[in-house]
Amino acid sequence: MKLNHIVAAFSVFLLSSLAYASGNHAGGHDETASIGQPGKAENVSRTITITMHDTMRYSPASLSVRQGETIKFIVTNSGKIKHELVLGTDKELKEHYELMKKNPDMEHADENMVTVQPGKSGEIIWHFTKAGKIDFACLLPGHYDSGMKGMVRVKAQKSKTGIKE
């Protein structure tokens, strides 16, 4: 009987892990349309470097882009522990963080995030399609709670008539 419980528990864990790894966890990364979409290297309009520190801070922690821009983020880990940068809405980031606290060793990769080992760099290429505020954070357990968060202001694109779109 105990073996049946173990097998059932493992099956639930395995299925939830597969769903998580497929990008449909914490409300799903299908919602990334609200923050833009993955960009293409040939469309990059500029590159922004963001440094992650073991003080649980990003530098810079706040930046501005224009609606319609495709930005290449070079994300550098200057510390001695692993960090990540995940773009999302405040709600998405909080939901994802709760899952990460329950599954701290879970490895996954989505186009709106990069995990960077100490002393290394990674990149995200992102196309900002909508004006507004987009958050970013390190969702590794303890990092988010320690304030490892930032924000991108996406300035509205002006049309040829001068009216914001």
Description:
Mean pLDDT is 82; it is low at 1-30. This protein has helices spanning 2-21, 90-102; strands spanning 37-38, 46-53, 57-59, 62-66, 70-77, 83-88, 113-116, 121-127, 132-137, 149-155. It is an alpha+beta fold. The chain is built from two helices and ten strands. It has one domain: Immunoglobulin-like, CATH 2.60.40.420. Strand 2 and strand 3 (57-59) form a beta hairpin. It starts with a helix and ends in a 10-residue tail after the last strand. The strands form two sheets. It has a five-stranded mixed sheet, with no helix packed on it. The chain has a five-stranded mixed sheet with strand order 4-10-9-6-7, with helices on one face.
Features:
single chain; alpha+beta; Immunoglobulin-like; 5-stranded mixed beta sheet; 10 strands; 20% helix; globular; disordered N terminus
